[in-house]
Queue: 3 jobs
Job 1
Amino acid sequence: MAVLLVSPEFLASKFIAENELPLLLKASQKEGLTILWIPVRPSHYTRTVIAKYQAAHDPEKPLSGMNRAKQDGALVEIVKKIEAIAPPSSSPSTAYPPSTPATPPAIIRPAVALPSIQNVHGWSAPQVRALQSQIAQALKSPVEFRDTLKDGSPGPTMVVIPGGRFLMGSPPDEPERRDNERQHEVEVASFALGKYAVTFEEYDRFATMTKREKSDGQGWGRMRRPVINVAWFDAMVYAEWLSQQTGQTYRLPTEAEWEYACRAGTTTPFYFGTTISPRQARYGLSDGTVEVGQFPANAWGLHDMHGNVWEWTGSEYDEGYGGAELRTVSDPNASVRQVLRGGSWDVRLEWLRSASRYRRDPCDGNPYVGFRLARTLAL
């Protein structure tokens, strides 16, 4: 029996599509291998070969959308279903290559107990830093880390972001608020996020190694400046390449993850308070980007969450916040635009607010847009 843990990243993985799935499907057709799949996160599974096989759990109720108690109950039922189809046997059986999910499911528990999910909305900087350190220690990881690529060089600097609940969106009385910022409570699992937006130095290395055309820097400089003129699809390919290079799961953050990380417990329009100044962010100018890390970080150590470049997220734009903000997609419909967050070097102040939302066609790369990667933590 093969059990597949299905997520958007699993379905989008070139390695899985070209190396693992063909072996399993062949074994199913010729040798009667039973294939079950578990919907870890919402995905477009109906458009894939996965839809032909039996789901071990209701595909309309993926595990990521449940609280921990419901997840545990669902897991018990999944195990029962698996055991009913393939009861334990002491006799040897044919071994088939296991399916490795692109995203380690959030419901797997770490070897040490993580603190329970807490509502961090309105927490102070010392409080969120303490939680961050606590989660990193539980995961036996430094707060900041860099994975190693196949050639031995370091990957981007990543920061552990502890899971929690918060009020996403903006209150009705926030200045410059827009109607698409409906405030609602969201729960985010622990993950890692880039300390900086992806730089030209990092993206150019990828382009050289994969023989892709390098992105246009507009003559402003490259190296430590954020990469620009990259479409959403370019960012996704970079994340897939970095995943293959490191053996970890890199991806674009969901829209909810992005705002949660930006706020770092704050409830004000900006991480820095009710307003922001040119000493704290790059905005409202006409002469392009600056190198990453030139402005103060938030409480979790993330730089440039306000300004410099808009940042692609993995989420489709949903005007009313109907749940798309909690998901990443791998094959967006051409008619659906992807969410951008953070504002850029040329926009007015109000676009830099933590709750501000923008959207563009996933094929559109321009001088105002870059991206920052998330990494799934192996809990």
Job 2
Amino acid sequence: MAGYGLCKFRENIMRKFLLPILTILILVGCSDSGIAIDSSQSEEQKKYEWRLVTSWPKNYPGLGMAPERIANLVEEMSNGQMKITVFGAGEQVPAFGVFDAVSSGSHQMGHSGGYFWKGKVPAAQFFTSVPFGLTADEINAWVNRGGGLELWREIYEPFNIYPIPAGNTGTQMFGWFNKEINSLEDIKGLKMRIPGIGGEVLKEAGGIPVTLPGGELFTALQTGVIDATEWVGPYNDLTFGFHQAAKYYYYPGWHEPGPMLELLINIDAWNSLPKHLQVIIETATKAVNQDTLDEYLARNNQALTELIEVHGVELRKLPDDVIEEFRVISEKILDDLAQEDEVIGRVYESYSEFKKNVSAYHEISEDAFIESRISSTAFGCSG
């Protein structure tokens, strides 16, 4: 009987103390070996629903569809784990309220252009476009391979924003006018919608720059609130119907040679994501960055042909002396900004150095080829 009692005592000890301890040790060992980790499983299964606000009309061709494509790609690539709902300008925040909405965390994402925040972040303009600056391919190279992205993220970090390149329209048009521009005298007193440093150049030349969101431009032009407007290029300008409110269509878009769009992400929201979702967002946005440029390049010529042949728009080139004066004014403004602001100075130095080097190479590559292609076409050559 004593032996039997001792056995029962040992059995009770095993049940009460040793078995729970063994269970814990087994679970810990499995966790360390990666066999069963509840936390990682929940991270992979957790659903994320984010809101993305933009500066563009909902589903607007090019500009407005870029964030829609990003959202669709992210949802597809994440197998539905992440869903991003896109809101057009004014649906939840004003067109020019995107930066503040993302910075504050009221919305996790935004899509816009950096020069809209020049009053808050003056250096942001370099990551969209500056007069006589980098083309679309060049700014992509500078940002992604020439140190621009590191500067961009450093500058936006104090505002709790993580930027990613998210589209480009290619070289734009100068815009729509109801009177001919034959000299600088025709610029004086002209009320024109034009953002960024381009607006500062117009002001220095005697014009009156006005900042308006895209959705208000047609009415403003039609009613005489403004005398002229730039927007994007033929593809987008045709959809807004500017040809019904202005007669002359001027080029080149010296003020926006290659404007880069931006995906803005709240840093706290970004840091809350698992790594694989961060990679998916970066990858999807990089794809859309190039796809948007492809879209504009493919659509602009077709739209321009329609504007001229169907709607009777008069296409005009700015006089060379006007362009040259704009260039001189632009250089002075940029130099002054670089001297007055240490951050702009660093960005401008990097930007200018890249532009100088890439321009030198273009002279013997793309520029030389395009010149030869034009010459061949002029002489009726092909192939």
Job 3
Amino acid sequence: MKINVLITACLTLAAAATMTFVSCGGQQQAPQAQAPAIGVVTVEPTTSELNSSYPATVKGKTDIAIRPQVTGFITKVHVDEGQRVHKGQVLFTLDQVQFQAAVDQAEAAVNAARTAVATAKLTEQNKRMLLDKNIISEYEWQMAANSLSQAQAQLSQAQAGLTTARKNLAYTVVTSPSDGVVGTIPNREGSLASPSSAQPLTTVSDNSEVYAYFSLNEKDILELTDGGKASLAERIASMPAVKLRLADGQLYPLEGKVATVSGVIEGTTGSASVRALFDNPNGMLRSGNTGTIVIPRNNDDVIVIPQKATYEIQNLRYVYTVNDSNKTVSTPIEVLPVNDGKNFVVTSGLKSGDRVVVEGVGTKVRDGIVINPVDKTSAPAAEAAAQ
């Protein structure tokens, strides 16, 4: 009996001790969670260069379709595709037999006409002497004079025919009209060549300089002229040098200059054709090459933020700014449509001195939380800080 009482007393004391411990523990407060350390940048106005890219097609300064001026069979091809030629260099020779025969015939006609003129001249002179002696009438002399005039006209006609025949013979030798590079040669020896053929003998492209053709839409042109406040010619003259990105992704080593912008907007495409001129001393560029025109656009005194610092809701773009209490605030912004793929140029919504979150956007950071801001870099280098 005494043992049971003793056990009961011990259990009571243990329970009381446990209750006392729990009660004391209940009075302790759980430690508060620390604010997360988040990278931020303080934005300041800076200078930014953004590039606009446009698909382009390259053409030689002159692409001349070579066609014969007479019809004949090709007897010799003097050049090969891709060969560089000079002005006046022989490209093709056509069959000359019929044209040489025409020259011989024309020369014979000229000789016959000269003989006829000489005979008519003697006759006219003789008739003149007889007229002076009143042996013949003036009518007879006039007939002789008319015959002389007719013979002289026939000589002129024969000489013109000879000139034409010689030109046609010369046309059988087809030469290059300019320096350049030979294109495709679809017809070889034995093929019939004609001025009316749909396909030229070849094309000679003068690619010492090349044109890169690309298009600007109406919006681009309005931006270029500042909504019509400046003339297109003035803006073209002041445009910076442009670059050409080749099909393999490399930049052409020489910069070009925008030369012209078409004065007509194509109704089907809503764009205007633009031509940029590039020097091509080594012949690296050929007619038919494709690439991308890169136009740099300098923006002064603008705020630049990394794209990773932004998020979109219903086509609106936002950033998280940090107020004086280190609390995040969802802030709408507007940016330029042109960007470099890494940064945005902000046109409204931010001002100099604002702190912008550049880490954890879309993951750790949400609107209205308190953070421990960690200053990273200035806005132009924010992309590096955000990575």
